Amino acid sequence: MKQIASLSLDLDNQWAYMKTHGDAGWESFPSYLDMAVPRILAFLKERNLKITFFIVGQDAALEKNRAAIRSIYDAGHEIANHSFNHEPWLHLYSRDEIVEEFEKTENAIESITGTRPVGFRGPGFSLSPTVIDVLGERGYEYDCSTLPTYVAPLARAFYFIKSPKDEPRGKGKAQKALW
């Protein structure tokens, strides 16, 4: 009997971690996609694996990342939505802010691949009833934002406790994002 597994990768870029952590220089959107994507694709090809890549919309919107993202699609992998700004307090956004996050990401991904994403994973596994409602309204087929373990909330709490407490982390929303 052939065993089946569903594999995915959040292709979070360097700038997203810098921004969430409050590090200077994130605004220039430093990227490692041009280096990491070819290596990841070679690894997957050697093993004859197809996976889902959750792509941050801001990365898809930047010209410097388009070739790397297109190469993922051309290799036959699924491209899914991982929000536009990759802020782990997405669950605190208003409905209008969530719609904007999805629209911007969908447009950026579709401009590269010609297809609109049908899957979503919230940054930091961030999820709310409003996110679920908007996903349904926008025709998404699945969401992978839940992590069935106690580790995700603990990891999020640890990350925010160890991070600087200044403003770059979501206009005061970061501490609320702990829970």
- Along the chain, the helix and strand elements come as EHHEHHEHEHEH
CATH superfamily: Glycoside hydrolase/deacetylase
The CATH architecture can be named as Alpha-Beta Barrel
Distance between the termini: 42 Å
Mind explaining what this structure looks like?
- The protein has helices spanning 14-21, 33-46, 57-61, 63-74, 95-113, 129-137, 151-162; strands spanning 8-10, 52-55, 78-81, 119-120, 142-143.
- It is mostly helical and 179 residues long.
- The chain has one domain: Alpha-Beta Barrel (TIM Barrel).
- The strands form 2 sheets. The protein has a 3-stranded parallel sheet. Strands 4-5 form a two-stranded parallel sheet.
- Helix 2 packs parallel to helix 4 (63-74).
- Mean pLDDT is 87; it is low at 166-179.
Structural descriptors:
7 helices; 3-stranded parallel sheet; two-stranded parallel sheet; 179 residues; TIM Barrel
List the helices and strands and how they pair.
Layout: E1 8-10, H1 14-21, H2 33-46, E2 52-55, H3 57-61, H4 63-74, E3 78-81, H5 95-113, E4 119-120, H6 129-137, E5 142-143, H7 151-162
Parallel strand pairs: 1-2, 2-3, 4-5
Helix pairs in contact: 2-4
